[in-house]
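# step 3/5: fold
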Amino acid sequence: MDFIKNRRSIRKYTDKEIPSTVLKGLLEESFRASTMGNMQLYSVVITRDRTMKKRLAPAHFDQPMITEAPVVMTFCADFHRFSKWCIERKAAPGYDNFMSFLNAMSDTLLVVQNFCTLAEANGLGICYIGTTIYNPDPIIELLKLPPLVVPVATITVGYPNENPVQPDRLPAEGLIHEEIYHDYTAEDINRIYHFKETLPENHQFIEENGKETLAQVFTDIRYRKADNELMSEQLLRTLKRQGFLA
């Protein structure tokens, strides 16, 4: 499984189309993921049409991968289908609540990871687009998602046209806890983050943003408290609109 250790996000793709049979086969394998109560609480919207990709792009802050990738896949937490099945079978669904959304989101992300791993193992490149959960409303409108369906992840897919430098990862010993959670001392933090903080590209990142430390780039520039609070409020409104919150 060396390809997992060597994986990297691909943002540039060739013009080669992905055959529908290949995509369907990868998805069918992905759907073998673990699922809450064997309910399969997810759906996938596949976007190939250029016009649709252009219409999707603003929802993802116009990241070029959205319009340049052969395929854009929007993975959705979906309790709509299961609820309709319940109604058709004389059962009363009670899935219009936050816990049901969390169950559906967990189901969906398990499938997403399966798909990404399988796609890369079969020579495709993928990029996980994190903006989906930040800005779900225009995606819901464009893809005509019904109640109890919320987009939670977008993946761009295609045959790679680049081989970028692999991004860093924290050392495994900094992430693993034996038996119980062992809190981190200042020395632990220094050791765990030493490699990341000494990378030349991160030093450049600090200088370009006029900050003293890499952590300040995250807290003051990239993932600000005010932005997170605003997006949290928006997501809660979306969950209410889509029927997961009263």
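# step 4/5: annotate
Residues 98-121 form the longest helix (24 residues).
# step 5/5: archive (pending)
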